[in-house]
Amino acid sequence: MPVTQAILVRRPSDLTVAWAQRIVAQHAADTTVSEVNVLSADIGTTTRVRVAVEHNGPETLPRRWFVKLPSRSWRARCIAALPRLLQTEVRFYQEVTQAIPVLQPTILAAQSRRGRGTTLVLADVTEHGAVPGAPGDALTAAQATVVVEQLARLHMQFWNTASLDHEYRWLDGPVRRWEDRLGTALAVPLMQRGLRRAGSAVPIALHAPAVRYARRRRQVMRVLADGPRTLVHHDVHPGNLFWQQSQPGFLDWQLVRIGEGVGDVAYFLATALTPEIRRTCEARLLARYQQVLEDHQIANLDSTTLRQRYRVHLVYAFEAMVVTLAVGDMMPLESNLELIRRAAAAVEDHDAFAVRPARSASLG
Asked: Are 205 and 326 contained in the same domain?
């Protein structure tokens, strides 16, 4: 990991030749940057900027960069600030990324200073032909299979390991507790606002159960945390994936934490598949997830309990999409509504708000 100096910026216009030169110097001391062009800027939970950097360095030094800054949307910035989401992603890339066994972007530089901001600079995955996903993408059953397999690889790497309580203990620390408190405090008003804004995307029969869930969110979160501990992405929707040929990679690690692996699977299947595709392959994909874990000596997996835990984790996928809509400026509106429709269908199919999950000790 390169030592990073003086790269903090606040807005796309701050991405100058001098700024890029400081980053390039950490990777190739004799390289000179001649030009920096902003290709696009997108505002969501963060401000995401793609830039082209012209330099005379080696081919291994990227010329397309992806820069993440605090969001220029005040609503998104307020939601992200207290739980320090971008700061968490910076620390993830600085301390955890080398242990992650799935495709991710390459970090070029990162810096976070309290009161002064946060800047994360990654190699743009498009430079070598990868295709970033969009939030509203609908994946095929074949694509979903390889994503589930990669999630299993990620989860088995950290499954109930000592490193979770040592090197990565901070992932379950005060920042996450602040996030949980904030989510609980705002759960009811955000759920009500999101349901109003969603309109027909959420069947009326789900409105009352969704608000009841929001009122008892703290208890539900405890239930969802009652599982085998591993490292989870916690935000695996189509817009946080990229595709290198037929292999998926994972973007946006702001919500990374210690949790239950099947929660990632539930979130992914509820958001990335149309209801029709999900219904035809859901059971097979859960079985595939279980099989990959068992093939790597993750023992004592009970398929009945796994399915039940999957069902109850669907409520978080639904909440996350509705709250995203309630806050606003975090995802393109039509994509957000589509993911709400998909998650609502999954919750309705499984009557997920009514599930009383078994304790998950039998899962690991």
From this structure: yes
Segments in the chain forming alpha helices (H): 17-24, 74-81, 85-95, 141-158, 174-198, 207-215, 217-224, 261-272, 275-295, 303-327, 333-350
Please check whether residue 144 lies inside any domain of the structure: yes
Q: Does some domain include residue 317? A: yes
What is the Cα–Cα distance from 233 to 154, expressed in whole angstroms?
9
> How would you list the strands of the sheet with 241-244, edge to edge?
131-132, 241-244, 247-250
Do residues 95 and 229 share a domain?
Answer: no
CATH label of the domain that carries residue 94: 3.30.200
Residue 351 belongs to a domain? yes
355 three-class SS:
coil
First to last CA, the chain: 34
Pairing of strands 117-123, 241-244: unpaired
Distances (CA, A) of 338 to 145, 203, 239: 21, 13, 12
- Co-location of 82 and 156 in the same domain: no
Q: 281, 41, 304: which is closest to 147 by C-alpha?
A: 281
Q: What pLDDT is attached to residue 160?
A: 86
Domain that holds residue 169: 131-363
Task: Let me know whether 135 and 249 are in one domain.
Answer: yes
> Rounded to an integer, what distance in angstroms lies between the CA atom of residue 53 and that of residue 38?
9
Task: Look up residue 138 and give its DSSP letter.
Answer: -
Give the pLDDT confidence score for residue 179 in this predicted structure: 82
Assign 3-class secondary structure to 147-206. Answer: HHHHHHHHHHHHCCCHHHHCCCHHHHCHHHHHHHHHHHHHHHHHHHHHHHHHHHHCCHHH
Closest CA to 336 of 76, 126, 63: 76
Which residues of the chain, if any, have pLDDT below 50? 1-4, 360-364
Q: Are residues 137 and 122 located together in one domain of the fold?
A: no
| 212 conformational bin, left if phi > 0, alpha if psi -120 to 50, beta if neither | alpha
Question: Which DSSP state fits 262?
Answer: H
Question: What is the pLDDT at residue 306?
Answer: 93
At which of 79, 111, 128 does a domain end?
128
Question: Do 330 and 45 form a contact (C-beta atoms < 8 A)?
Answer: yes
> Which residue, 128, 148, 177, sits at the end of a domain?
128
